[in-house]
Amino acid sequence: MRTLVAIWRILCVVGMVARGLWLAGVVMPRRDLAGRRAVVQRWAVQMLRCLGVQVRVSGDAHAGAVLMASNHVSWLDIPALHASAPQARFVSKSAIARWPLLGRLARAGGTLFIERERKRDALRVVHEVAEALKQADAVAVFPEGTTGAGYDVLPFHANLLQAAIATATVVQPIALRYSEPGHAVSVATQYVGDTTLGQSLMKVCRARGLVVDVHFLAPEPVGELDRRVLAQRLHDRIAAELRAMTAAA
Predict the structure, then answer these.
(1) Is pLDDT above 80 for 79?
(2) Rounded to two decimals, what is the model's pTM?
(3) What is the 3 state secondary structure string of 121-133?
(4) Do the beta carbons of residue 148 and residue 142 sit within 8 Å?
(5) Is 41 in contact with 78 (CB distance < 8 Å)?
């Protein structure tokens, strides 16, 4: 039975990807900024619904220029954040730009791509993020640089946070937690190790009752903080929130 459910969900996902390409190529160029964000949010909500994922949001996304910093669990993080903060642009690994279809969707959403294997590329992306923040954009980053299992938060890389310091922009920490019946921390959504995107998609589509909790924490003023100090402060706040969310489940 779960296999049939998974097949149906995958067919829905294929349809949503096709719809996303049509929206990106035909609809969004005709909309103003608010209209494009509304399109992105509706698409993300519908995609998560196709996957059987419920989104629960607490707190408010900061209005105006903000660097959002979130823990990273799954490829689901991006639609989950688009569903709750459609104004956010993302910084993602450059490999996503080369993914068939999904890369085009990411580019249409204003994603900034970084070559994580090249340390010098971080400087280029810092400048791009800083320029976006100067234009009052919201930019979302995953300072862990990779996905974790969801039980705790991996060490944060501080490089991209320099963009917020250079532009005196607040940073908003976000805690993401996936759960499913019987598991306060979801097993089905874990995207770690040698797991491929296809394998992860099948695990998600076979799961029951998946929920992603998106907690927007109070923004952190950067002041004259060193980026490493800021990274540790954000890490500790998100980790503490994640522990509290898991303990309350």
Answers:
(1) yes
(2) 0.91
(3) HHHHHHHHHHHHH
(4) no
(5) no
**Dihedral class, residue 101 (left if φ above 0, else alpha if ψ from -120 to 50, else beta):** left
Determine the Cα angle at 76 with ends 55 and 146, to 5°.
130
- Which two structure tokens, joined as six digits, stand for 124? 């280029």
Residue 203: in which H helix or E strand, if any?
helix 197-206
Tell me the pLDDT tens digit for each residue of 140-191: 999 998 899 999 999 999 999 999 999 999 999 999 999 999 999 999 999 9
Q: Which amino acid is at 210?
A: L
CATH architecture of 2-248: 3-Layer(aba) Sandwich (3.40)
| CB-CB neighbours of 248 under 10 Å | 8
Domains of the chain, residue spans: 2-248
The Cβ-side half-sphere exposure at 239, using a 13 Å CA radius, reads 14
- In the chain, at which residue ranges do the beta strands (DSSP E only) sit? 53-58, 66-70, 88-93, 112-114, 138-141, 171-179, 210-216
Rounded Cα distance, 219 and 85, in Å: 14
DSSP state of 180: B
Q: What residues form DSSP beta bridges with 139?
A: 67, 89
